[in-house]
Design a protein that fits this description.
The protein is an all-beta fold and 103 residues long. It has no helices and ten strands.
């Protein structure tokens, strides 16, 4: 059984017991969160497609930790202008674990 959920403007394929990084949530580690924006649900070969969301479906998750992703280097240069700019960026994320999928 798996589901496709939407959180933080992105879509993720999740299964029970899976751990994944999502956009930063303002929750403490150890807190439980229920995601009700389920776009697609597959259960024993039967599928349900939402329009836009599957009604009555939810995914229950536990917040494990918060962290920061790898550093991305952004370099901009304008030729013949003696102009160069180098910046770095690290995206914040929340690590969650999927506990159960309710259909």
């Amino acid at each position: 059984m798996y589901a496709i959920i939407e959180t933080g403007g992105k879509q993720y394929r999740v299964e029970e017991g899976a751990e994944l990084n999502v956009a930063l949530m303002g929750l403490e580690p150890g807190a439980d969160v229920t995601m009700d924006k389920v776009l697609f649900l597959s259960k024993e070969g039967q599928v349900q497609v939402g329009a836009p969301y599957v009604s009555g479906a939810a995914v229950s998750c536990e917040v494990l930790a918060h962290g920061r992703g790898p550093k991305i280097v952004v370099f901009k240069k304008k030729r013949r202008n003696d102009s160069a700019r180098k910046m770095g960026h690290r995206q914040d994320y929340t690590r969650i674990k999927v506990k159960s999928i309710q259909a």
